[in-house]
User: What shape does this take?
Amino acid sequence: MKSTFSKTISSFFEEDDLTRNIFYQKALPTDKVSCQLKIKSDLILAGLPWFEAAFQYLDEGFKLSHEIMSFEGSELKKGDELNFDLPFNIALNGERIALNLLSHGSAIASFTNLFVEKAKGTGIKILDTRKTTPGLRSLEKYSVRCGGGYNHRLGQTDLWMVKDNHKKFFGGVEQAVSFFNSVGSFYNEIEVEIHDLKELEKALEMGINHLMLDNFSAEQIKKAVLLKKDKVTYEVSGGITLETIDNYLLPGVDAISVGRITYGAPPVDISLKYERV
Assistant: This one.
């Protein structure tokens, strides 16, 4: 996994500017320390590969045990600890970046899981969006999966999304769909963002199989379901929160996309303590 994250991790350490004071770096003791990763709030743990990669950037030989890695995606409780060893200078220089990444991933996984639990038993999937932090999309979307959610798309070209701006620029749904058909590959699917029932009827007539019902009320969704055809999927989107999601867990809905699971997850508390062996 190191090569996957090396460029991103490198940029994080450049920001921390460890090389500015070489005297300090050379003065740091290299004695081995026993590290305790302390879980200080209930959470779903996500981001251990990034946590490991941060220390590997400073010490290529570092590797978390299989036992510790097995906790990835698991529910941990306040008071739980994970233990490993590091040289003191590596622990000191890497801990903040490593903890920032692990805490961020765990916050997203934990928040995602709250939505997943709400939808449990309905068959409705919880999706993320591309509303991610630049440079951290892979961590954030990975963490959504650890929390039981699903990725909508990793990048623009995974799925052609016909949105408002496309329709306005090209002159309507048909023209926008025609454009994407002209630049798509054999395996590219198209999803159209829908804002009212009239637009939905038009898209269904065109044979569009994937439809995002954007900012639809519960009553509008119920009417949309009556129009639904075989092999068509309905994704519901638009400002849905933990407090309102129950209103959208309706028969005929296949997925609910929630941007806030990546950009609005409440923080979790994780710390790293260490002592001389």
The two ends are 28 Å apart (CA to CA). The mean pLDDT is 95. Residues 131 and 260 are 8 Å apart (CA to CA). The chain has two domains: 2-115+266-276, 121-263.
